[in-house]
């Protein structure tokens, strides 16, 4: 059966996108050019009706090194969550010096924050297609783009590695997830700039407990973890909850239910 020539036009557009947009990754550029030449050769053969397409297709050789794509939430988070991507890139480079790291936060130079969601995904999906591994940051479940990237990786057989396994999540992650579950909010909204009353309350509770618990994280550490600008925001949130515990009867009733759950997380951590 012959292949519709339009198929190759679509593939070539994807290859051109990879070659044009990812030229700052030499290994990606070279691989894209190789794939393009292979497809052109097959298309040429097909046009002359010499033999079926699938008799000529040869799988691309597996790269001799790992190509790791970082996936995670961006939309709605301060600075598009770029600091978390850069931190993950630095961590991966330190632990895997021979791997090539694709950080989508670098796709537009210093990072453009005013583009459409489609613009970002047109740049990111070809990168996922060229990766051997995808490294997933926390909060990815609430991101439409990150879910697309993970699904694409699954279809292509790309190895998926989570930043935190369920049994190895950091203490702060567990606290935030517990508070979000209690208030029925999403983690990404807590980490975003959303200032609706319910989101702010849940965010302030996280600030309060991370500082007040046995872990006693510093204000600056909490600010970094919650994507806040500085420690003054954390101090404000802590004081708000401290006041609510003293004088707000509605909050006191909620706190009687939530505090034992948070204490149990601390005990599990200690154990």
Q: What would your notes on this structure say?
A:
With 271 residues, this protein is mostly helical. The chain has 3 domains: 5-55; 67-163, Hypothetical protein PA1492 (Rossmann fold); 170-270, Chromosomal Replication Initiator Protein Dnaa, Chain: A (Orthogonal Bundle). Helices cover 59% and strands 6% of the residues. The protein has 11 helices and 4 strands; from the N terminus they run H-H-E-H-E-H-E-H-E-H-H-H-H-H-H. The protein has a 4-stranded parallel beta sheet, sandwiched between helices. Helix 1 (5-21) packs antiparallel against helix 2 and helix 9 (219-225) crosses helix 10 (231-247). The longest helix is centred in the N-terminal third of the chain and has 22 residues, at 26-47. It is elongated, with a radius of gyration of 24 Å.
Mean pLDDT: 77
What is the number of E strands? 4
Distance between the amino and carboxyl termini: 64 Å
H/E element sequence? HHEHEHEHEHHHHHH
Radius of gyration: 24 Å
CATH architecture of the largest domain: Orthogonal Bundle
Q: What oligomeric assembly is this protein in?
A: single chain
Proportion in β-strands: 5-15%
What count of domains describes the coordinates?
3
Q: What are the low-pLDDT stretches, counting only 5+ consecutive residues below 50?
A: 1-5, 46-62
């Amino acid at each position: 059966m012959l292949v519709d020539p339009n198929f190759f036009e679509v593939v070539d557009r994807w290859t051109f996108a990879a070659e044009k947009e990812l030229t700052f990754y030499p290994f990606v550029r070279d691989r894209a050019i190789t794939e393009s030449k292979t497809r052109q050769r097959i298309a040429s053969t097909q046009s002359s009706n010499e033999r079926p397409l699938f008799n000529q297709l040869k799988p691309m050789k597996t790269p001799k090194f790992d190509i790791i794509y970082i996936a995670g939430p961006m939309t709605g988070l301060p600075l598009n969550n770029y600091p978390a991507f850069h931190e993950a890139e630095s961590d991966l480079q330190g632990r895997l010096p021979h791997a090539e790291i694709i950080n989508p936060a670098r796709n537009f130079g210093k990072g453009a924050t005013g583009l459409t969601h489609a613009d970002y995904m047109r740049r990111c999906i070809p990168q996922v297609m060229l990766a051997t591994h995808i490294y997933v940051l926390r909060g990815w479940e609430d991101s439409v783009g990150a879910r697309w990237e993970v699904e694409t990786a699954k279809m292509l057989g790309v190895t998926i590695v989570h930043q935190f396994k369920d049994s190895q999540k950091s203490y702060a992650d567990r606290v935030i997830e517990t508070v979000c579950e209690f208030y029925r909010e999403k983690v990404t909204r807590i980490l975003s700039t959303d200032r609706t009353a319910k989101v702010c309350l849940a965010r302030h509770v996280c600030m309060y407990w991370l500082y007040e618990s046995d872990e006693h994280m510093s204000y600056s550490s909490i600010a970094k973890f919650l994507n806040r600008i500085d420690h003054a925001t954390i101090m404000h949130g802590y004081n708000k909850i401290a006041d609510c515990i003293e004088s707000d009867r509605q909050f006191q009733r909620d706190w009687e239910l939530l505090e034992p759950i948070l204490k149990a997380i601390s005990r599990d951590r200690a154990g």
